[in-house]
Every structure is written in structure tokens, then in C-alpha cells.
Write a structure and sequence with these properties.
Elements: H1 4-12, E1 13-20, H2 26-36, H3 40-51, H4 59-64, H5 66-71, E2 74-79, E3 82-87, H6 97-102, E4 108-114, H7 121-131, E5 137-142, H8 151-162, E6 165-168, E7 170-173, E8 181-184, E9 189-192, E10 205-208, H9 214-219, H10 221-237, H11 243-247, E11 251-256, H12 265-275, E12 282-283, E13 288-289, E14 297-305, E15 314-322, E16 325-326, E17 329-333, E18 338-342, E19 346-347, E20 354-355, E21 358-359, E22 364-369, E23 378-380, E24 391-393, E25 397-403, H13 409-422, E26 426-430, E27 437-440, H14 444-457, E28 461-464, E29 470-475, H15 479-488, E30 493-496, E31 501-505, H16 508-517, E32 522-524, E33 526-528
Parallel strand pairs: 1-3, 1-4, 4-5, 5-11, 6-11
Antiparallel strand pairs: 2-3, 7-8, 8-9, 9-10, 12-13, 14-15, 14-23, 15-22, 16-21, 17-18, 17-23, 19-20, 24-33, 25-27, 25-28, 26-27, 26-30, 29-31, 29-32, 30-31
Helix pairs in contact: 2-3, 13-14
Bound molecules: guanosine-5',3'-tetraphosphate.
């Protein structure tokens, strides 16, 4: 018999992450969402993280901030009768592979765009990652209190650069100093902007109906007329909202506002809890897991190290995919084939880490980890299966590691092996020489690795530049072709930390030419754990 409580809890959950370019307003909008979710004390902790953001990318400093970063790694708050889980996607100096992998653990994403800057590089990249699982995207065009670009132009750019249709849900009335509010195209309600309400839940001053004479009274004859014409034009020239197309990742509903002014955020959130999907089915190597399935399952998408300086603990972040987690339950750690009793999983509901009594699909729990849990690990109730789709991503930054004391080679190799299993970095060993090359997607990853090698493995390593621009994992069914490729391309081949053959390309052009020359070989930008 289906479990009604489970089905209800699943229906309540909305698990998402924000994708944006640095400075578009992710932190600010997070604060406002927490404010609406009445998690005000956390809003403060997000802020203090931001205050230190421009500090140097110094790992020691990061360590001092660790307490903050863990509580903001996952934020759970109620909104509109739903339970929202917001997973943080590190974006500034702390941008790393975790950012990408977090996107594999959500059911939808909110794209925040700076209205003056339009679509920026990091957003393009994160969108590519969302596309790996056709993640539905909702859009917020931010900074309407500034003179931004024409809203229609911003939407055109989103459509063109990100290859997704835009359906405006709200429409801005003016911008910059003349920003008056937004008109909801589907509810036929004008929401009026009042300045200076950024740090509290703003009053909702509204006018019902675009044809309401109050519109003239508030906006004046000319502006009211202009707005009506503009709305008609926009309705004719843009896509209509189509829920199914949104869920397929083909169309994004677009909301306008100012995160700093805390305006337009409420309308966006109302749309979000209404349209964003609840916990979705997930693929494994044996079956598709439905969230309503009573058998507990989950996977680890992130490991955070050394969060408490007094204990050398690491927290593994597990996304619950089906069933219910209960305190003291036994689960199967599939990779090592052992049942483990989890008595002290963490939840992220309050400002502090607290112990969780129960968790449902879509929720994230933190497991204490003493080195036995790796990224991508699956936990089940006695079932032999593994979740797929939590990959390694091809690094974009590379450095050669050199030891200060050559006798420490063993310790270095052990350290790098463990750190790469945790997802802190990726390691590549060229087949033609004895180099050790580290790969990352964010520069801080290198600092973290150097620091942890020193603290945890007593190894002093220094980095050198290396002529590698990107990496691709190599697959080929034709054994003879593969052997030929290995011989001829050996100068650019390496084995990664998991033992997989990788092509490490000195330039993009080189990669492209090699791909053209070897059509039988697959050059994959991701690899499963
Ligand atoms: P991020 O997390 O995406 O990197 O962006 P964050 O929220 O930190 O915002 C980046 C900057 O943009 C901040 O200014 C923030 O105040 C500003 N900002 C965010 N939303 C809006 C908005 O709606 N309108 C305007 N005008 N500005 C906005 P900062 O000067 O870097 O920081 P701060 O001194 O304001 O804290």
C-alpha cells in the first residue's frame, strides 16, 4: 500500500540551487528568501559570509569561516505551505567542482541575472551542467532599481545564448530611479515598489487589474497608458508560460525585481513553489528510483572537510532520494558493502547544525565521515544498486605538483588519492612521465589541497604551471583502435585518480583536432564516480 505520509512529504519538498555569475545578486536574494521563510537569523550568517568575500583566497581564513559556510551549505525553510531546500553553490573564490556537483542533487534551479550585464560566462557554464539532467530553470532578472538594459533585450539574450525560451511572468514598470513595480501577467495584479524595505518583509501594495482606474491614480495617465501598450506588445511578442515545457527544461518563466530592495522576490517565490517540481525520480544502475518509493535511498554529492577544528570531522552531504530517514536507522553503504547505523546525522534547518530525527526525499542530511564515504556513494536499505549521474567534471585549471622533500612521495600519493576521492581535486598521472598533475575548476581548490596535504599528511607540496588546458575521458569499444590511439597520442595521455584513461589537451584547438582525427574515440567531458 502506498505510504500517504511519504507521498505528502514528497509533495511538499522543493529542492533547488541558484545559478548565477558572481555579483549578480545570489547572496542578496538568498537573504531575502530566508527572510520570507522566517529564518532571519540565518540571513545574518549569509551576510557575514559576504562581508568577507573580498578577502584573499586564503584557506586559513576560510577555515575560520567554516562554521558559517556549513550552515549555509544547505538551507531549509518553509514558504507558501511548502518546504524549500536551498543548496548553496559556491560562486566566488570558493567556486569549485562542488558547485557543479551540487547541481546534480537538486530538482530545479533559479537563475539570477544582473539586468545590466545580461548572460555572463559562469551562468553559461552552470547552465550546461543543469542540462546534463534537464533541470527546470526559473529566472529572476535582478537590479531593476538600476538603469539596466531593456527587459526584452535581456530575454532575447537569454534565449539566444542559453538556448531556452523565455516566458515573462511579471513585467517591470520602469527601471532605475523610475522603477515603480511589476505587473503580474497571469494574475492581472500590479505590485507597487516601495523603496527602503530591503531588510524586512515588504508590504504588498497592489492594484487588482491593469484596467483599474487606480493605475492612473498611482502611475499617472501617460505611464499607465504606456504600460498597457507595453504589456500588450510583450504578450504578443514573447512565449506564453507552458508548465510542461518548463519541466522539460525548454522554457524558463522570467520574473523581474530587485533583490536588494526585496521587491519582486515574493512574486518569484510564489511562482517557484507553485511550478517547481517536487523530488524527481533518479536513475541508478539497476532501476529508476521514485521519491515515493518506501525503501530509503540516497547519494552523497559533497564532502566538506575539517569543519570543526576540534574534531577532524568531515561531513558527507547526502540527498535523500526515496523513503524516510529516521534517527538510528541502519543503512547499507553500498560501495563498501557494509550496514552502518546512523545515529547522528545533521540537518540544516536552524542556524546551527542540529541533529535530525527524520528526513524525507529532497532533504539533505549530513553524515559524519571518517574517511569511508566518497562522493557519489549510494546508501540504501539492503539493496545493491548505485545512483548514476553524479560525475566528475573535466577540470579547467591544472598545476603540476612538486615535493619539497622527495622522500615524501608515498605520503603525497596517499594524500592526493584521498583528497581526490573526497572531490577536493582531481589527479592525473601522465603515461609518459612521472609528473603528478592536479586539476580543478576553481583556484581555491589548489590552496585547500596544499593546506590539507601539509596539515593532514605532513607533506609540503608546491605548484608549477603545466601546459594543460582541458581534459577528456577516453572511451572506445574498438580495442585495436584504442591501442593505436594510446600509442600515437601517448604524449597527451594520463591516468586519473580512479584509474581511467584521460586525454590532457594543451589547447582547445589541439583537443578539437585530435577529436577530428580520431572519430572512433569518445572524448567525454564528465566521468561517473
Ligand atoms: P553574488 O552573491 O551573486 O555574488 O551577489 P551579491 O548578492 O553579493 O550582490 C553583489 C552586489 O550587488 C552587492 O553589492 C549587492 O548589494 C548588489 N545588489 C544585489 N542585488 C541588487 C539589486 O537588486 N540592486 C542593486 N542596485 N544592487 C544589488 P556590493 O557593493 O558588492 O556589496 P554590498 O556592499 O552592497 O554588500
Amino acid at each position: 500500500m502506498p505510504d500517504a505520509t511519504l507521498a505528502r512529504e514528497v509533495g511538499l519538498r522543493r529542492t533547488f540551487a541558484i545559478i548565477s555569475h558572481p555579483d549578480a545578486g545570489k547572496t542578496t536574494i538568498t537573504e531575502k528568501m530566508l527572510l520570507f521563510g522566517n529564518a532571519i537569523q540565518m540571513a545574518g550568517s549569509v551576510k557575514s559570509k559576504r562581508a568577507d568575500r573580498h578577502a584573499t583566497s586564503d584557506w586559513m581564513k576560510m577555515e575560520q569561516e567554516r562554521g558559517i559556510s556549513v550552515t549555509t551549505s544547505v538551507m531549509q525553510f518553509p514558504y507558501g505551505g511548502r518546504i524549500v531546500n536551498l543548496l548553496d553553490t559556491p560562486g566566488h573564490e570558493d567556486f569549485s567542482e562542488d558547485t557543479y556537483r551540487t547541481l546534480t542533487a537538486v530538482d530545479s534551479a533559479l537563475m539570477v541575472i544582473d539586468g545590466a550585464k545580461g548572460v555572463e560566462a559562469r551562468t553559461v557554464k552552470l547552465m550546461e551542467v543543469c542540462r546534463l539532467r534537464t533541470t527546470p530553470i526559473l529566472t529572476f532578472v535582478n537590479k531593476m532599481d538600476r538603469d539596466i538594459r531593456e527587459p526584452i533585450e535581456v530575454m532575447d539574450e537569454v534565449e539566444e545564448v542559453l538556448n531556452i525560451q523565455c516566458a515573462p511572468m511579471t513585467w517591470p514598470i520602469g527601471m532605475g530611479r523610475h522603477f515603480k513595480g511589476v505587473y503580474h501577467l497571469y494574475n492581472d495584479v500590479l505590485h507597487l515598489y516601495t523603496q527602503g524595505q530591503g531588510s524586512r518583509i515588504p508590504d504588498d501594495r497592489r492594484i487588482e487589474g491593469l484596467d483599474n482606474p487606480e493605475v492612473e491614480a498611482v502611475l499617472g495617465e501617460d505611464l499607465a497608458e504606456e504600460l498597457r501598450m507595453e504589456v500588450e506588445l510583450v504578450r504578443g511578442a514573447s512565449h506564453e508560460f507552458d508548465h510542461a515545457a518548463y519541466l522539460r527544461g525548454e522554457l524558463t518563466p522570467v520574473y523581474f525585481g530587485t533583490a536588494m530592495g526585496n521587491f519582486g522576490v515574493r512574486e518569484m517565490m510564489d511562482g517557484f513553489v507553485e511550478y517547481a517540481p517536487p523530488p524527481q525520480p533518479r536513475e541508478t544502475d539497476t532501476r529508476v528510483v521514485e521519491a515515493e518509493d518506501e525503501r530509503f535511498t540516497g547519494f552523497v554529492f559533497k564532502i566538506q572537510a575539517n569543519m570543526d577544528p576540534n574534531h577532524r570531522d568531515r561531513i558527507a552531504f547526502l540527498r535523500v532520494c526515496s523513503g524516510k530517514y529516521e534517527k538510528n536507522m541502519k543503512m547499507r553503504h553500498v560501495r563498501i558493502g557494509k550496514d552502518v547505523k546512523i545515529a547522528d546525522a545533521l540537518t540544516f534547518m536552524a542556524a546551527d547544525r542540529t541533529q535530525v530525527e527524520e528526513a524525507w526525499p529532497g532533504d539533505i542530511i549530513g553524515l559524519h565521515n571518517h574517511g569511508t564515504i566518497q562522493i557519489g556513494d549510494t546508501f540504501t536499505l539492503n539493496e545493491e544498486m548505485r545512483f548514476t549521474g553524479i560525475p566528475h567534471f573535466a577540470p579547467e585549471l591544472f598545476k603540476r605538483v612538486r615535493l619539497k622533500d622527495p622522500l615524501k612521495m608515498k605520503a603525497l600519493q596517499k594524500g592526493l588519492q584521498q583528497l581526490s576521492e573526497e572531490g577536493a581535486t582531481q589527479v592525473f598521472m601522465p603515461v609518459d612521465n612521472n609528473d603528478l598533475i592536479l586539476g580543478a575548476v576553481g583556484t581555491l581548490q589548489f590552496d585547500v589541497v596544499a593546506h590539507r596535504l601539509k596539515e593532514e599528511y605532513k607533506v609540503e607540496a608546491v605548484y608549477e604551471g603545466v601546459n594543460v588546458n582541458t581534459a577528456r575521458w577516453i572511451y572506445c569499444e574498438d580495442v585495436k583502435k584504442l591501442e593505436e590511439f594510446k600509442r600515437k597520442a601517448s604524449a597527451n595521455l594520463a591516468i586519473d585518480g580512479g584509474g581511467y584513461l584521460t586525454y590532457i589537451a594543451p589547447t582547445r584547438v589541439n583537443l578539437q583536432m585530435t577529436q577530428e582525427r580520431w572519430p572512433e574515440i569518445r572524448f567525454q567531458p564528465t566521468r561517473e564516480h
